[in-house]
Design brief:
Blueprint (H helix, E strand, L loop, with lengths): L1 H28 L1 E7 L6 H9 L1 H6 L4 E7 L3 H9 L5 E4 L1 H9 L4 E5 L8 E6 L15 E4 L4 H12 L8 E4 L5 H6 L5 E5 L2 H7 L3 E6 L10 E5 H6 L1 H17 L5 H11 L3 H8 L10 H16 L16 H4 L3 H4 L2
Parallel strand pairs: 1-2, 1-3, 6-7, 6-8
Antiparallel strand pairs: 3-10, 4-10, 5-8, 5-9
Helix pairs in contact: 2-10, 2-11, 5-13
């Protein structure tokens, strides 16, 4: 009986060892990608990807699990990337340039969208003393200090032969733009989408100047961790490819899905479609976008947010785009 028991025990141990090895091998082949996303209109195609499950579907055969991390803005996304909690994220130009300047090991792997007219100067709808950027002198103008809105104010001032000494610059949170306008605390605010559309459509504000009145491009980025992308280049290429697919299909997507994307951005479906036309969804980071990011770097140095300027082009890698099928959707 003891012999039989011993033999059975060895057999069970052998089976366990084999099963354990099999599990280890299976786990070894499994991967995860953590995608950071924020509710800017520039990233609406990525919301469509999430609602449709396209990235999950495209990565299933490669045993890649997709996890989504929701944030309200770029700085927390940078923190998540730095901590290794996110692998790739959507980001604005200022957070992107700031992350690289801070020494984060990240690379710009693409451009979700650029949109000069996604940035605007707004005045209260019934304000007759503020009708264009030519009326800025002596006025109280609010924005998020250090943001792309701040950069736009600088460009509009320069356009009119003015400097920051000619206005009273007020620092606000992006979500307070409507309050400070409607209560008359400021004469104008400079803000970005989807805030612009919400405030104009609800009757609070009117647009008196746009990014296209200057050379502002409004470039956003796909920013990814170097450690992750070197080990998983195929995953990054698939994400860019599916984003490009969403760029093509968003205008004609079904009503139910469009409603979900609108809900994600706290907009109506009609507003989503209008906003879609304000952006150039390039996916690839071209020379013009790289120059725009360099301009952002110069701006941050000029206001003392960065100590010195660096070459943004050294942190751009389009190989992930080039190795994807994104171009097939962008024809």
């Amino acid at each position: 009986m003891k012999k039989i028991t011993t033999i059975m025990l060895f057999a069970l141990l052998a089976i366990s060892a084999f099963t354990g090895c099999s599990k280890k091998e299976a786990k070894k082949g499994e991967r995860t990608v953590n995608i950071a996303i924020q509710p800017s209109a520039a990233f609406m195609p990525l919301y469509l990807c999430r609602e449709k499950g396209w990235i999950e579907e495209a990565l299933a055969s490669s045993q890649v699990t997709v996890k989504w991390n929701d944030f309200e803005s770029g700085p927390p996304i940078n923190e998540s990337l730095a901590a290794g909690l996110s692998d790739i994220g959507t980001n604005g130009d200022v957070p992107t340039v700031s992350a690289i300047a801070a020494g984060q090991k990240v690379t710009i792997v693409g451009v979700p969208g650029n949109g000069p007219d996604a940035y605007a100067m707004l005045a209260k709808a019934d304000n007759n003393t503020m009708n264009s950027d030519a009326d800025m002198k002596g006025k109280k103008i609010a924005t998020v200090i250090g943001s792309t809105g701040h950069n736009l104010i600088k460009k509009l001032l320069s356009k009119n032969g003015l400097t920051f000494d000619d206005i009273e610059l007020i620092n606000i949170a992006a979500g307070d733009a409507g309050i400070v306008l409607s209560t008359g605390q400021v004469d104008a605010v400079v803000i970005w989408e989807p805030n612009v559309t919400r405030l104009v459509d609800n009757g609070t504000a009117k647009i008196i100047a746009k990014g296209s009145d200057t050379n502002l491009r409004g470039t956003n980025t796909f920013l990814a961790r170097d450690e992750y992308i070197k080990a998983n280049p195929d995953v990054i290429s698939v994400i860019l490819e599916q984003f490009a697919r969403a760029v093509k299909e968003l205008p004609t997507t079904d009503a139910a899905t469009l409603q979900k994307v609108a809900d994600d951005l706290k907009l109506t479906p009609e507003q989503v479609l209008r906003l879609y036309n304000k952006y150039g969804f390039a996916v690839q980071c071209d020379a013009v976008d790289t120059a725009a990011l360099q301009d952002t770097c110069s701006f941050l140095v000029s206001i003392g947010r960065l100590e010195s300027e660096y070459q943004v082009k050294d942190y751009v890698d389009n190989s992930y785009f080039n190795n994807s099928k994104a171009k097939n959707y962008l024809k």
